[in-house]
Design goal:
Elements lengths: L29 H11 L4 H22 L9 E2 L6 H8 L19 H9 L9 E3 L6 E3 L2 E2 L11 H11 L5 E5 L1 H6 L2 E2 L13 H18 L3 E5 L11 H16 L6 E6 L7 H7 L4 E5 L15 E7 L9 H12 L4 E6 L18 H6 L3 H17 L5 H16 L6 H8 L11 H12 L5 E2 L9 H11 L5 H22 L16 H4 L2 E5 L6 E4 L2 E3 L2 E9 L5 H8 L8 E4 L1 H6 L1 E3 L5 H21 L4 E5 L11 H19 L7 E6 L8 H7 L3 E4 L9 H7 L4 E4 L12 H14 L6 E2 L10 H19 L2
Parallel strand pairs: 1-5, 4-6, 5-7, 7-8, 8-9, 9-10, 10-11, 12-23, 16-18, 17-19, 19-20, 20-21, 21-22
Antiparallel strand pairs: 2-3, 13-16, 14-15
Helix pairs in contact: 1-2, 7-8, 8-9, 16-17, 21-22, 22-23, 25-26
Amino acid sequence: MSDITNASAPAPAFPGGTILGYPRIGRMRELKRALESFWKGASSEADLESVATELRAANRERLAALGLGRADSSIPSNFSFYDHVLDAAVTFGAVPTRFSQLRDENGRLDLAGYSTIARGEGDKAPLEMTKWFDSNYHYLVPEIGPETEFTLASTRWVDEFVEAKEAGFVTRPVITGPLTFLYLSKPSDDAPTGFDPIERLDDLLAVYVELLAAFTAAGAEWVQIDEPVLVSDIDADRADVLANATKVYETLVGASERPALFVAAPYHSLGDALPVLKDAGVDAIGIDLVRGSVPADVDLTGATIVAGVVDGHNIWRTDLDEALRKADAVAALGATVTVSSSTSLFHVPHTLQGEEHLGEELLSWLAFADEKVAEIVTLAAAREQGEHAVAGALGEARAALKARGEHPGTNRADVRDALAEVDPGWFERGPYAARAAAQANRFHLPELATTTIGSFPQTPEIRKARAAWAKGELTDADYEQAMKDEIASVVRLQEDLGLDVLVHGEAERNDMVQYFAELLEGFDVTKNGWVQSYGSRCTRPSILWGDVARSAPMTVRWAEYAQSLSDKPVKGMLTGPVTILAWSFVRDDQPLGDTANQVGLALRQEIADLEAAGIGIIQVDEPALRELLPLKKSEQSAYLDWSVNSFRLATSGAKDDTQVHTHLCYSEFGEIIDAIDGLNADVTSIEAARSRMEVLPAIRSHGYERQIGPGVWDIHSPRVPSTQEVTELLQLAKDSIPGKQLWVNPDCGLKTRGYEETTETLTHMLEATRAVRGV
């Protein structure tokens, strides 16, 4: 048994139950609407601040009503207008040089400047965006260089604590930790070659010490420092990470003016970082016991452990008996244990209230954020007062879990028999050379063929028609005609612009996953189950609760209609099995690979029907392939095997002259280039504009032989890139990838953009293509 000592100073008692964070967009997406109104100039900064103040107040009151304490630091303060990593960058003065003019004489930003860094403006590109660990959330990547002047440039975190205190709440401020902040940053444009942001750790630490003193002066008893980087196998040497962790937390623990420090490390096991934090004297350590574990030989005597036994990353009701067992096992190692969510609850919707259409049975299996808080309160009571005090709640949980396990939809013989009959040959296509020749003979596409990723702007008229149809206010025939009119308009626009391969625009789709969830068996969808993806962008993940089957074609009639309008090829558009899983709340009672293959088999059937309808180019989107990649390298190979195989099961039945496309976005593609190659798609489009093609050297060195479309337009920003900017990006791409392999396309679908900017940017994209072609 390892011998770990704890040198931490006495700290206030930690509450018996807490959460690591709470949804911040509002139950009805109030923050989204307020942000977008502000960005459009329809409301003022004061209006936006007012909405945010009301949301924070409502959240505090709700959490108190659910049983968290008003004055014991059990309620976290984790609000953000756009992104918590951007908040940290702004707080510490890490504003890129190109945005320095946005700061006032004190180095501070207003919300307009904050938003500009996130979204870009004119020729100033926004911060790069990428995934937050293995979640469907995307954060903004700070840019750090030797020139970065770290300073306490914002007191917003402290001000929000004071706001709560004045309302009668002693909350627990939540801040991004210095290790996570720097290890997730990238070198600034001004940084010399070889510079690593972690080199600025000492300078940044001084500002953290200053911030902790400000919290102490304001009356904070505890501060939560999120350090998920400690559970991740990042590129940096692990010994260096642990040495830096020792430096950071010995420094912060030793600060003369500080609140008690709670370091939370969600998303997996802390492993060898756990004794480092304990030795440094950290007052409380948060561990994820849903995705991770604690070694049985660790001596936690004297430590306060915040045990994440309620899944903050998924929506299934907790097995309360198992959660208590896990908490007791940690207590047996000598720790004082608090029960908590495993991650922040901003990964799940606010509440099940209003979702009665799901039916009592399914509802009884689920727990959104509010219901998870209630579970934590129950667990805390069970540990403090004995299980008899909450016997009714424990019994209800047991009955719900039993009913879920016995439901016929969770174990369908027809689905399982169909998968058992899958032949190994179903995962293989013919040689690429033969496919490429057959496709060239069929389509006669030019070098640097142009296309888009799939969706076109979802106008208010489209949304109104869909809502009216759902309410029964629009007949099936009228709705279908409205969608056909939009499809015809989109096809005509693309032909007028001169694109080579067209799309139908997906007017009929509310969401690239929900659309399929509503047509596949084994899914249900919510009405208000919104979660934040990034900024004001919210998604409504479907609930994949049972075995998956396709009862009828899902996309064929729309694709067939669009193709009838043009002599140019129109892509059939499907969402891949991994993305359907990643962007849904997926059943946790069987291996993910089994569920992915069920979806893959359903998509295989859809591809066969598209081919029979004459659709020759079929795109199977997998933008989330990197999102589910495990944080531990030892687990990544198994994930990539099943994820790639589910895609190949879906697509390998296609004929040689059917061109299979796929699309990936906002990921570190260099880490999974073998898997991307393994998908065996004929054409792969990838996000590349915001990072200025930085993925292409890895693709070139890999010897990638098939066709690839690195995005030349960052559609997640409202700015319109010039023809010159797109030309430069395209030339960068051509410098790395032979022109015969290159496609030209945006980074992602155009659903969130408006038609004016879409038309203007696609025009620039085509002008740039002609320039690089030399036409």
